[in-house]
Amino acid sequence: MSKKNEPVDTLIKDHEYDGIQEFNNPAPFWWQLSFYLSIAFAVVYFGYYVMGPGRTLDQELTSGLEEVQALQKKNNGPDVTADQLLALVKDGPSVARGKAVFESKCASCHAADGGGLIGPNLTDDYWIHDKGEILAIYRVIKDGVLDKGMPPWGAVISAEELSSVTGFVKSIHGQKVAKAKDPQGEKVTQ
Amino acid sequence: MKNQESVVETFQYDDDIVRKFTLATIVWGAVAMLVGVFIAFELAYFRLGEGIPWLSFGRLRPLHTNAAIFAFAGNAIFAGIYHSSQRLLKTRLACDRLSRFHFWGWQLIIVSAALTLPFGITQSKEYAELEWPIDIAIAVVWVAFGVNLIWTMVKRREKHLYVALWFYVATFITVAVLHVVNSISLPVSFLKSYPVYAGVTDALVQWWYGHNAVAFFLTTPFLGLMYYYIPKAANRPVYSYRLSVIHFWTLVFIYIWAGPHHLLNTALPDWAQTVGMAFSVMLWIPSWGGMINGILTLRGAWHLLRTDPIIQFLIAAATFYGMSTFEGPLLSIKSVSSLAHYTDWIVGHVHSGALGWNGFLAFGMIYYLVPRLWKTELHNWNWARVHFWVATLGLLLYIISMWAAGITQGLMWQGIDAQGKLLYPDFVQTVVKIVPLYWVRAVGGTLYLGGFVLMIVNVWITIKNSKAENLADTTDRFAPFRRAEALQIPKLEHRTLERMPIVLTVLALTAILIGSFIELFPFITGEHYIENAYSLQSITTKPYTPLQLAGRDIYIKEGCYLCHSQMIRKTVPDVLRYGKASTMEESRYDRPFLWGSKRTGPDLARVGGKYPNLWHYRHFLNPRDVVPQSIMPSYTWLFKNSIDYASLNRKISVQRVLGVPYSEQEENFAGENAKAEAAVLAASLRSESGGQIEDDREVLALIAYLQVLGQMTSQAGGAK
User: Which B-chain residues 263-322 have CB contacts (< 8 A) with chain A?
Assistant: First the structure.
């Protein structure tokens, strides 16, 4: 810090307004230095990103998404089989986990007890897709049915949650519900 | 000697107008803060005011911001400018009638804001919500203020213009330009209009305005006030004249460019974002020039910080100014913005400026002015000290809770697990987490208001104790300068400019026009830039159907955009949560644009088709039926109010004039077509729900609008 930047408190002659006088102290050294640095940063930053090799937002997004998709692929284990899913219907802890997922994600459209609200009743004998086969239930949850407003949950919940919520849905078949929605789809007798 | 003394003239200051503006500041300040505290509690507890349209957050939030900025800060600015300018120029204000026209005109504008905004009459552009007739009134009254100010400078006795006056000049000229350019719109009716700009252009013009309203309505005038009231209250010389020259010109020149930092990572073209960020970073140091000159003026009188509440308020104001002008550039860095934007961090940042900088400076000024204007002692200085500490405590609770809420929620939105999935896929999970902090904020705001109420009582008793004869105008004596001498231009230096108010005004205007022109010109002359970009993508955008347009206007009326954005940014977490990043083409016909600036609820840019119609229907009736933990209030009145079909032909007609490709047929049958659309939608809802649903309710139009969001564009060749 140079000496000439220290305040000396000299009043400027002829600078008086309604009693207010002015010193002419130099701007602090750190202030000046920071100003030059911020200008230098701005120029370099602008040059690099607008005229230079800096990546555009689209390019950065694309590479970011590729990384995430690679992660998703790596963790997307082999598809489940019907037998594996059916085993989960009787697996108490798994059904409990599935119930929790159902209550947070599915209840808004299918009601907490599965009796149906916006989406169909899941406890009755009527099924819209593939006669309510367990793999069909799994696929509908995973990939959604966009035409009917069922969102795809495969990108949102984990593979394990997907399986346990499938098991839970199958487990509530035949249960008595408070307010059942009118049947939709075809009757399946097993 | 004798000859010279005879030149000294005696004159009187217009103190009455300053008293008027001071009282208006206090009255409107109470209104602004009361509304603010109310809506803060609404966010903490959604049942508050639920079911009453004009008490809903979406309707009251614009009232709060407009009252705080234009009514509270605005009247404070006018009080301070009129008080200090007369004394700095050693003359009475140029025209008493113009001053009164300014005062009553401004109060009338505020009253008309209070009578329109809660009823959903709004243009939805933030801090520029007022409809076109009020906009015209603002322009007229603002020009009256400017003419009065510059005229007073021209007929001054003091030879040179003090730094405070440079800031007042920059304020007048820039706000005039900002207001006129941003408000240009085509009326549909007396209380409804569509802006001439659409989509990305509207977004850029709006945030050029919005950012610089902060700059030239809440910063430059207050810096001017600071330059008068700190040296006066402390009785110390200003720290550095040369610093004031540098930071004035750099601030005025650089500020105007920084608007695009409100649109980082959005569909705004990269170059404009980069310019906005680069200038925001450069803005940090010029801003701190003002803070240094304010705080260091107290050198040699630091003891006043312990004893004098006026100095406490003024110096704390300069300190909060320094804090928020460091935070601002920080938030303008693209990566910081990707975390903080749309969160409560921004809300906290704004309030450290508005409550800390503007509020504290206004309070310090009021405690300085009231005893002088009513020529009596303040009733109780200890109450003023209590006010300072209560307000400081409230403000700190406010800022800290919003930092915590904003950073917590921002990180939750970004969280991605090892499987490449969102950690918190349900938006509502991230809301529930921060509701406790909304309570802390509301308590902080209440404390701040409490301190303000103490000031009101203090001022009221002071005024009651003042005698009527105290209200006579203050007399002063001063010798006029020799005008012939001032007109000579001896040297090319800043001092010369300080003798030329008109030239100073023109130079300040030039300084702000450079950045404005370079940033806005390519967008406003759309055919050459934006339209080219659209056709290059070979993407076509469908205009809204009449029912969707009616729904869009309801979305605007209810202030949905204040809690929901419609802009999926070019960031991985945004795309994972909401879908493909939003494009310019998607808002091509959006007048006004509705990108939003806050996500109290989730983004809606691609909500179209995501849920069935019945989901939306039930959600508006009671959001908790479908999202159990939601804090959105129910919108029961949408099920009672009928859709305004009658205005649709006229609306489409105005849109056609603005260049939206509707056919003449579509214009003439807009009302009928909307009715038919609504009937189909109602029928499908009836068959799904089995319930009784009328054909013409507002909720149908709003659902129709929401269901098209994200579905407006198609690539040439048919594929979406």
Answer: 265, 270-271, 273-275, 277-279, 281-282, 284-286, 288-289, 292, 296, 299
Shortest CA distance to B165 belongs to which of B123, B223, B215, B95?
A: B223
- Name every chain B residue with its beta carbon within 8 A of the beta carbon of A49: 270, 274
Contact (CB, 8 A) for B237 and B697: no
Q: Sign of dihedral through CA atoms B512, A47, B280, B126?
A: positive
Every domain of chain B and the residues it spans: 9-515, 543-719
* Mean per-residue pLDDT pooled into runs of 10, chain B (720 residues): 66 97 98 98 96 96 98 98 98 97 98 98 97 98 98 95 98 98 96 95 96 96 98 97 97 97 96 96 97 95 95 98 97 97 98 98 98 96 98 98 98 92 91 98 98 98 92 92 71 89 96 95 72 69 95 98 98 95 92 97 94 92 90 97 96 95 95 96 86 90 97 65
* Residue B244 CB coordination number (10 Å): 26
How does pLDDT run across A44-98, given as a tens digit for each residue?
Answer: 999 999 999 999 999 999 999 999 999 888 876 667 888 888 888 888 899 999 9
| Facing residue for A39 by CB, picked from B162, B282, B296 | B282
| Helix, coil or strand: residue B631 | coil
Q: Which residues of A touch B426 (CB under 8 A)?
A: 104-105
Rounded to whole angstroms, what are the CA distances from B705 to B104, B565, B709, B712?
41, 15, 7, 11
What is the CATH code of the structural domain delimited by B543-719?
A: 1.10.760.10
ipTM for this prediction: 0.90
Domain B9-515 shares a fold with domain B543-719: no
- The reply to whether residue A45 touches residue B570, judged by beta carbons under 8 angstroms, is no
| Sign of the CA dihedral running B609, B613, B615, B617 | positive
**What's the alpha-carbon Rg for chain A, to the nearest Å?**
33
Q: Supply the pTM of this predicted model.
A: 0.92
Tens of pLDDT, residue by residue over A5-41, are 778 888 998 899 999 999 999 999 999 999 999 999 9
In degrees rounded to 5, what are phi and psi of residue B697?
A: -85, 150
CA–CA distances in Å: residue A177 to residues A137, A172, B38, B525, B556: 20, 10, 42, 62, 41
With the C-alpha atoms ordered B688, B692, B696, B699, is the resulting torsion angle positive or negative?
A: negative
3-class SS of residue B12: strand
Q: What is the pLDDT at residue B719?
A: 38
Q: Give the one of A31, A49, A108 whose C-beta lies nearest to B285's C-beta.
A: A31
- Residue B707: its H or E element: none
pLDDT in tens, A109-167: 898 889 888 888 999 888 888 888 888 899 899 888 876 778 888 877 888 888 999 99
Answer positive or negative: Cα dihedral of B634, B639, B642, B645. positive
B659-666: long-range pairs with CB below 8 Å, 24+: B660/B198, B660/B543, B660/B589, B660/B591, B661/B543, B662/B543, B666/B546
Query: Cα A26 to the chain's mean position, in Å?
Result: 52
What pLDDT was estimated at residue A78? 62
* Sequence-separated (6 or more) residues with CB below 8 Å from residue B351: B395, B398, B399, B402
Coil, strand or helix at B315: helix
Angle, in degrees to the nearest 10, between helices B132-154 and B74-89: 10
- With H, G, I as helix, E, B as strand and everything else as coil, classify residue B52: coil
CA atoms within 13 A on the CB side of A37: 8
pLDDT (0 to 100) of residue A3: 55
CATH class of B9-515: mainly alpha
Rg of chain B over Cα atoms, rounded to whole angstroms, equals: 27
Chain B, 554 to 573: residues with Cβ < 8 Å from chain A are 570-572
